[in-house]
Each structure stands twice: as C-alpha cells, then as structure tokens.
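User: I'm curious what two different proteins look like when written out as structure tokens. Can you demonstrate?

Assistant: Sure. I'll show them one after the other, since each token string lines up with its own sequence. Here's the first protein:
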Amino acid sequence: MKQHLGGLPPARVSGILCLGLLLACGCGTTISHSTTTGSGGTSAGASAVSTGAQLGLVWNTSDSTLRVLNGVPGATQLGAALFPAGAYVSGSFSAQTQTALLVDPKGNLLWMTLPSLNPQIIAQQIPTGVSIAFSPRGAYAVVYAAGSASLLTLSGLPQQPTMQTVSSSAALLGAAISDNGTLLLATSAGHGNASITSTAPSGARTTLATLQGYGGMAFLPGSQDFVLSDSVANTLALMHNGVPTVLATHAAGLDQPFAVAVSQDDHWAIAADRADAKLLRIDLTGATPPAQSTCACTPNQLAALYGNAVFELAGPGAGPGWMIEADDPIARVLFIPPVRSGQ
C-alpha cells in the first residue's frame, strides 16, 4: 500500500534552494524555527538553524536531540537542540537533500525538510530500534528494524515523499537503496550467513550473493554499482552487474567490517572495522593502495555529512563524537565536541 503527501508550497521549495546556496557560500544568515505545532504534535525548541558553514544535522545520544553541526571538519561545534529533549527517540539526516526523518516515542515516523522545523507524520507503528538509510543523493530512504520481515521505502524526497511497504522472506540484517530506488536487502541465511538480494523499481528480485557474515553495503552515488563487505571472510567487493571485484581483504587491514560508505564523487570507499576500531580507505579508481586510519573511539556508523567524503563515525553524547574526512591526501579522523554546558 502506498501513502502520498501533497507537494510543498512554492515558498518552501524556494526556501530550500536558498538554504542550499547559503550552505555553499558559507553565509552567516540564521533561519528561525516555526513555533507552530505540526501534525507530529511536537513544537520546535527555542532554536534556529544557522546557514553559515555547517556539516548537517546530527543526533546527540546523551539527550536524544537533533542538533546542527556547525563549522568545518576539524573545527566544529554542536548547536542548540532543535526540539525538546526526548521528543524523538531516533533520527537521521540527508545532507544532500536537507531532509530529516525522525521517530517519536509513540512510533510515528516524521519527515522534515529544512528550513522548516515542523515535522509531519508520514507513517505510524514504527518499531523501536529502527535504522534509517538514505540513498546517496537523498531522494530515497529505507526504514527497517533488524530481525523484522518487512520494511518501508520512501521516494520523492525531499518535496513529495511516497511510502511503500516491502516484505522480506527472511529476517533482515541490513538494507540500502540506490538513487533510482533499487533496494538491496541483507537477510539471514542461517548459520551466520547472509543472503544479498536486489529488488528493482519494477519489483523484480534477484539473489546476488551469499556472505559468511554481513559487513555492510552501500550504493555508489548515481549508480547501480555497490560495495559489499563480508565480516567473516574480511573482504570488500565492488558489485557491477552482479559480478564482484574484490577491492580489499584482511591483508589490507579489514578486520570484521560492519559498515561501508562511498564518497559523492565515486572516488573513495570507506570500511569501518568492529574488531580494531580502524577505518580502511579504498581508492575506487585504483590509483592508490588501501590505507588505514585509527579512531580513538568505537565507530558505530558511517553516516554521510555535508561534503564529498565526510562521514560520522560515532555520534556525540556526554563525550565527543567522531568523523572522518576521507578525501584528503591522508584521511583525517576528527572529533566532534560534546554539547556545551547549559546548551
């Protein structure tokens, strides 16, 4: 069953375009929040979204708030909470479309596109502990809970989201969606193995691979190619037309990978290890060998921030968060300061 929201008014579309220009130019303008209560039933907090240099919105784990990450890699500061603490239990943000998806304590899924700070309910009865993954350029998203047998896909972001429920034949381990809506599912195949299947926008399903252990997958921006990691075999492969090309193995430094990501220019792939908290950068052009970086943290994600190859590794909380800027000559692992006292 599909659910559809009407198009946004021209004024909001214009605001989104203006925000994108301000982000690119680094201007210091501030857009105040709307104080009206949206259909989600929660008013925005006493906050504003700065349109100066920023890296997007990030989830603060210490008080379950969504905050602007101001600054540039290596010089960042978390802004004030955009909503009261506890108003939402989880959230994810696409820097490419300036769109946030939020889940509230009642199990409602809400959608918000900057500069609006008035989330709208688009789905209900969302299970706790869901993961939200956007397509590389942010026009699609997938919402799923590990272990479940169904998920939600969203298309038409940021302006006109349409939702669809997709069933799975086995318990979900992970999901990813491409910029044309092709859906990848990683499902349990027994004995720790994982089956990787592809569902085209037409609905046709294809089994692509079986892994010894699921270690993450991510589409290349604007492409149907994707990178896929095996957490037991310690491999990272590029899948093109269903044919894998191994990019890295344990010999290059892979040690129980659990997440992968790709830069916006399709140049770099990043894999995060569970065993040693290290990151492995792979040059998809083949011009340079794989290179490792170390984080003084326990990475738990590879979430894209604003920029070509900037990914959040661990969300800020009572302590600092961490990010990697992967397109420097040497990839930089950088900290995100925790919330300042009284903020």
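Here's a second, unrelated protein for contrast:
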Amino acid sequence: MRYLLSVLLTLLGGSAGADPLRVFVSVLPQKTFVERVGGPGVEVQVMVQPGASPHTYDPTPRQVAALARADLYVAVGVSFEDAWMGRIRAANPRMQILDSSQGIDLRAMEAPDHDAEPGHGHADEGQPKVAHGPGGQGTGPAEAGEGVGHDHQVRDPHLWTSPPLVKQMAAGIRDALTQLDPGNGPTYAANYAAFAAELDSLDREIRARLAGVANRRFMVFHPAWGYFADTYGLTQVPIERGGKEPGPRALAALIDQARREQVRVIFVQPQFSRKAAAQVASAIGGRVEVMDPLAPDYLGNLSRVASVLVEAGTPRPSVESRR
C-alpha cells in the first residue's frame, strides 16, 4: 500500500512540476481562449500589446527571442502576421503554427457605401492579399482596413467577434494542445467543454436580447464587427476606408445615410480616431461608444456590445405612449 502511495505521489509530483506549453497568440482575445482550454498547462504570450494596432504592429526583440522557445503559435490572420510569419518560422522551425481561420468561411470586408473622395482612390491598390498555405499553415487573410475595395475584396480576420466561431477556434486549440501534450489531453478536452458551454450560453443570451431590436444597423469607424453582425442578423456600416477618415463629401454622405437608416450608435475602437464618428453622431443625435474587439474580457465585452445595441436599436416610445 505504501509502495502504491509512493508511486502515486511521485507521478502527481512529476505532473505538477512539468513545464507548461509555451504558446504565442496574435491578439488579446486569443490569449483568453488558449488559457481557458489549456489551463495551467499553458503559458501564453500576446504579440500585439494592449493599445497597439494589429495593422502596424512590429514584434519587439524580446518577443522574437521568446518565439525561439515557443511550442505553438496560434495565428488568426491579422496583417502583421503577413509581414512577420516568415521570420517567426525562421526563428523557431520546430514551433507548430495553428491557423485559427482554417475551415471557416471567411467573410469579405465591407467598404463604405459613399463614393471615394477625390484623390483617395480605392484603398486596396498595391495592398497584398494573403492566402492560406498548404496544410493549414498559412497565416490567413490580410487584416481589415489594410485594403478594402469593391474590386479586390479582403477577407475579414475578426473571427473572434462571433461566439459560435470562437467555439470552433477553441476546438482547434484543444486539438493542437493535445497533439503537443497527449498526457494532458483529457484535461484540455474537459476545459474545452466547459468553455464551449459558456460560449453557448453567451450566444443564447445575445440572441434573446437582440430579438426585439427593430433597427438592425449600426455604424462603425473600422469594420471589425462583421462576424458578430452576421451571427445575429445585424448590419455594420463602416466609416473609414483603408484606415483613412472620410473627407467632407463622404462625411456628408455618411450623415445622410445614418439619418435615412435611423442609426443611433457608432462604434469606435480605442486604436482609431474618434473625430469622424463624433461628427456623424453629433449630426444625427446619436452617440459614440468605444468598443474594443481586442478587449481581453471576451465574454463581458460581447455582452456589453449587445447591451448597447439593444439600447440604441429599440424604438423610442412616442409622446402619446409615454403619457
């Protein structure tokens, strides 16, 4: 009996002392997903730091050095991956790369409905388009806002704004972690099941809350909420084109469009200017809401998005009904 107890304690001690898998992700929401599935079995680092933009981010020398020791990189298709993935692979050829967008039908990015300003042209001119590599090793689509036009459509990488898609992404993370660490496979499976249940609950909550919303359109400076909109029967109307604020003519057209479509709320990200959004909101009697698709509190963030849309999209009572 003592021998069996000694063996058990030895095994438990060895498991507890095992080094966690070193995982890199591109943006903060992915850190949440990997940690929820991996638990204490993973150590996660994020490339794009809080407040930075995935459009223009350059990894620090410290991050590049840490990548040389990583076991897994979870890509999602933001634009800095296109510029850096070759160097990331070269820094650590043994590191596995999981393309989170693999197997997902990627949507096209919206372009503003207004005509381009004189001299602006189409924002996609000269911009590279990134395709999936063989065997799921590609880096995915180019990041939104890095070349959106009517003739050459860029695929939207903001998959994580849809809870059902996050559930699919989390399953890929579970499988990748299990492949690297089969001994903890049952733990990863159990963690995934718990996380998937929370995602299902969030999905049901958002659907129920948005069901009675009459106005299904909202404006965004940068069109990062397309998968959320598609999942819940909404439409996002973008303001910017290729990261550029609209000029006077385009701004006037946006204001007319917002009035015509009774838009009451405009989302802006903290990484972008609020000037154009504030001008539109002031002209239509609406409001600007700072909504960050890169927020680390994934579940709470999407719940807040739903709350704002419910408040903005529910018809205001008439004077007669308030009496």
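A detail about the second structure: The chain has two domains: 19-199, 206-322.
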